[in-house]
Design brief:
This protein is mostly helical. It contains eight helices and two strands; from the N terminus they run αααααβαβαα. It has a two-stranded parallel sheet with strand order 1-2. α6 links the parallel β1 and β2. α1 crosses α2, α1 crosses α6 and α2 packs antiparallel against α5. This is Alpha/beta-hydrolase.
């Protein structure tokens, strides 16, 4: 379980810039409007005119399993994927930050074990912020029922996709936890 609160990317910018809550929310809105604008460009110009590779160049590097990249790439060029992105972003921009994880906890007595990405941010301070937020979220969700130490994925190439991109590491870590 690698759980971060919704909006952590904006909380990290707030931390880095020492912003107030309102400054962070204003930045979030501007960021989401920028994302919506990009998706509108993709839907209105890039897809109809065949220019999507200019907006999103093919890059199979790091995609696991590499043999599946052509299928993924083909799907990412379809209009319905971008229409879904558009409506999801519009909904996100119209609502407050989702507090689902903040309001969620496992029942008492259920023990939680965790594998998490060690470096998730953009720099060492950001990485530390993400780690602390994830630990806080884990302790909240687990109701403080975390039974063993968290196993951190800190190896080269470790990212949020480590369960898929690093299957041997993940399997060994799960076995170390007795799962």
């Amino acid at each position: 379980m690698d759980a971060s609160p919704d909006g952590i990317e904006w909380f990290d910018v707030q931390r880095a810039n020492n912003w107030t809550e309102q400054q962070m929310l204003d930045y979030r809105q501007t960021d989401l409007q920028g994302r919506i604008g990009l998706v509108q460009l993709i839907l209105g110009i890039a897809i109809p005119w065949g220019l999507l590779p200019i907006f999103i160049p093919s890059n199979p590097t790091g995609y696991f399993d590499a043999s599946l990249y052509p299928d993924y790439n083909a799907q990412s060029r379809k209009e319905n994927l971008w229409a879904n992105q558009y409506f999801s972003l519009k909904q996100m921009a119209a609502e407050p930050i989702n507090e689902y994880l903040v309001n969620t906890a496992v029942p008492e007595g259920i023990y939680v074990k965790s594998l998490m990405t060690y470096n998730s941010g953009t720099d060492p301070a950001s990485d530390e912020f993400y780690r602390q937020e994830k630990l806080s979220m884990l302790n909240h969700i687990a109701g403080r029922n975390v039974t063993d130490e968290v196993i951190w994925c800190a190896e080269e190439g470790c990212s949020l996709s480590f369960p898929v991109s690093m299957p041997a590491w993940t399997a060994n870590s799960l076995m170390a936890l007795g799962i």
